[in-house]
Amino acid sequence: MDLKLFEARLKALGPALDRWPPDEAEAAIALMSASEEAQDLFATMTAEDLGVFDDPGGDLSALADRIGKAL
User: Fold this and answer.
1) Rounded CA gap, 11 and 6, in Å?
2) Contact at 8 Å (CB) between 37 and 3?
3) Spatial separation of the C-alpha atoms in residues 55 and 57, rounded to whole Å
């Protein structure tokens, strides 16, 4: 797998490698092991997928209270 194909697969399938065909996931891991550029691309796509740059997050105190009461 080359960087261009890796980027295309990330855009199409997302950064969760368990959603990728197994052979492509293995190739992606091999590429990331050898390429800092692939690692950076994966990190960026993962952050975007998680909304790190778009959503500052909300107030989680209500959720924490509910979890605490359930314990």
Assistant:
1) 9
2) yes
3) 5
